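Posting this for the archive.
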Amino acid sequence: EAEKIQIKITSLGLTESRITADETIQQLFVECRLNHFLAEETPLSLPKPPGGQRIHYNYSTVINVDKENNHVEREYLKSILLKPDLPADSLKFTVVSDPPEDEQDLECEDIGFAYVSLKEIFQKQRDIIEQDIDVFDSQDTSAVIGKLTVTVEALSALRSVHQECKNY
């Protein structure tokens, strides 16, 4: 139990913004990234919801951080706990626009970013359960374009890693 981080991407709602107004943005999926070495994405891209409504992904994934097989991930968690100034201490969620089938010349485009700080989970000693986090506009990081409902259960893994740090 302690050797994994559980992540669930429940749903996404958008506020009225350039995103809701943009006709070329039709389908959205969400990517979850841990630093540079691990990325998972929702297998489905869903139609962009009108402002005020939500689309439901109900996508769950697990990041294993056991010593035997997932050394890199575990060392990274250690670095988060041991280096207070490490900037990349967050799980990063990216909302991505998936071009429609008939528009193959369009690329997937990152339209928004949301973050969950693993360090903060450890400091507060509290997992994030079905919590709305702000999605910031990829073109204007001060603008919130929506809310992503996520669960990040990382506390037991972080405690386990922390215990190990103390044993050195």
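Helices lie at 18-21, 71-82, 118-124, 155-166. The mean pLDDT is 91.
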